[in-house]
Amino acid sequence: MSIRFIKEKNTFVLNTVATTYAFDILGGKYLRHIYYGKKTANFEPAPLNTVSFSPYVHELGPSFSPDSTPNEISFFGSGDFRANSLRIKGADGTGVTDFSYSSYRIFNGRRDIHGIPFARADEKTRTLEITMLDDVTGCKLMLYYTVFEKYDMISRYMVIENCGKQSVKIEKCMSLELCIDRCDLDMVTLYGRHNAECSYQRVPLHHGVQSVMSRRGASSHQYNPFMAICSQKATEERGEVYGFNLMYSGSFLNEVEVDQLNTAKVLTGLGGECFGYTLESGECFSSPEAVMTYSAYGFGKMTRNFHNYIRDTIMPKAAFEPHPVVLNTWEACKFDIDAPKLVKFAEEANKLGFDMLVMDDGWFGERHNDRAALGDWYVSDRKFPNGLKAFVDEVHSKGVKFGIWIEPEMINPDSELYRAHPEWCLRVEGREPLRSRHQLVLDMSNNEVIEYLKGIFDKTFKDIDIEYFKWDMNRHMSNVGSSALPAHRQDEVSFRYMKGVYKLLDWLAERFPNTVIETCSGGGGRYDMAMMTYGIQIWTSDKTNPYNRTFIQSAAMTAYPAMTMSCHVSNPKGDMRSLDFRYKVALGGMLGYELNILEMTEEIKLEIAKQIKEYKLIEDVMRLGDYYMLTSPVKYPYSSYYYVNGDNGRIVLSVIETAACKAGRTKLLKIRRADRDATYSDIRTGKLYSGVELQNGISVSLTGKPDTAELFIFVRQ
Ligand code: GLA
Fold this sequence. Notes:
The chain has three domains: 3-313, alpha-galactosidase from lactobacil brevis (Beta-galactosidase, Chain A, domain 5, Distorted Sandwich); 317-624, TIM Barrel, CATH 3.20.20.70; 629-716, Immunoglobulin-like (Sandwich), CATH 2.60.40.1180. 19% of the residues lie in helices and 32% in strands. Strands 6, 7, 8, 9, 11, 12, 14, 15, 19 and 20 form a ten-stranded antiparallel β-sheet that branches. The protein is globular, with a radius of gyration of 26 Å. The longest helix has 23 residues, at 602-624. By secondary structure, it is an alpha+beta fold. Helix 3 packs parallel to helix 4 (387-397), helix 6 (447-461) runs parallel beside helix 7 (493-511) and helix 8 (546-556) runs parallel beside helix 9. Residues 330, 360-361, 405, 472, 474, 520, 522-523, 539, 542 line the site of alpha-D-galactopyranose (GLA).
């Protein structure tokens, strides 16, 4: 059984295939963390250890203080001075709560979270529900631990129910709190900016609080919600690593506090200045779901735990079909598109083996540049004089599928929608809203806005065979205020906004069941697990330069599988070497192209056709296979990694040089997953290798020049 309650010890034990997690009930009231690590039946709670200036509960004696206990959950103002999970302001205005353990329940499967995406249960998933009560506010707290046994994943979130008579306000609500009883640890996060998402940062923990957060209303390019804490010597294959992530696309807070007793307390959830939520008597609030995993075998195992979990329990079913190789119009055409031009694109795309033409920005209203028309989601009759349906039918008649770009959450002040409904954008009364990319943000917390968007998309896309939506989101929220909410609910806007976005995405998926979605936010501005429930892939970054992409993709792969990662070849500008390099970098994920197919030499066209053909032979290895990073470009002058399919029969090995080094240097790249008893042929060269040879390492000679790459495709004979 993956979840047990040991009555004699008042202890809950959660087991996955390779890990154990345990906590007990202390003094009939507190939840004390005992253990998270390698699977074991031998764990003991650490002895109580109070220090001066840590307040204690009189009845339990001075040896116990919430401030020096590894709490499973802690409450602002009740004796734990470290970062807390929960701050709720009741009628007394203090923000102090003190929930006591009340009961537990263990059940098969999981509980759904209302209005926020969550991971799917499988037949072995089990859940522990702990109920806690706060007498003064009258609030009830349910803490959910869901065990995804075979993935070594445990998720956690909470539901707060106001059973009291007066309203309360939740001011901080962290889905997960974990105390690790040491602090000689490193913290790994992914930071960045637009065009440079997922920069890898590894720093030692220090006493005090270290945090990453988004106050942008989006999970953001700046700080991804993924975080890992590892032993300082942890490598790809060795050392202890704890991985965390929050399944949410809006503002969040990840914090780690190293305390006076050298414990590292990890929290992830809704905190910081961007969150507040008033709960009237009788109402419930659910936090987003957080997940954690533990690896005793370095980052590689943690990475594969996340990859398997995200693929199997989060990604939509359609992501398991081959993803279309798309020709996207953005980088080649920008806003300069019309029916005759794109029909020619479709015709050529078909000849080269593309599956789909994706018409990006510029097709609607008076959208001739990025200054106008967001919100006016009807087709431009100047660019498409016969209407959208006739155009899409023509694209189909050329033998390719059709995808279209939308950016539902945004509005340009220069739009019909804004002229009709200026009150529909986020703004603070009396203040001029700031613009970003000439646009404002629609108030997705307002149901009228959602209904308008449903109506207009329904009308525009009705009876049109669209096979793919690219859902974009190109600015962050400032001057956050909603005309639809009263003053005391204004700090709920960004949370309610996210629920509005999820609602519209749910509607879109239901209304157009045969249409897959790619999500995007100026590239990877919402590269998070919640978005992954909707899209078959995410546009990883607007940066398509393969040099920068190598770093972005390598870091993104730490936490997210290749299936999620859209990788496009752009602008080869007639240079074959560059085309080859771009292709080999894009092969790290789901391949597509953004280039002007009408202005290309025959030689380039032939090469692209060859690339697509080759990719189609192996795309399932990247999409469904296991990923092993051999060298990170952050540490070495080259990035190298391989994907291997489930039965080890096919292996794709990439070596991408990113910095100049001495030419001719050889590197031994060990493919441990190769089958010892087999012979493999590299289908690119015809050269044969024994499995033992691959396991011992294939010798690759570096050219010493950045912007070159080598690709091996080993197929078992
Ligand atoms: C964002 C996206 C791009 C493209 C443009 C269109 O920047 O990331 O891929 O769709 O918007 O305006």
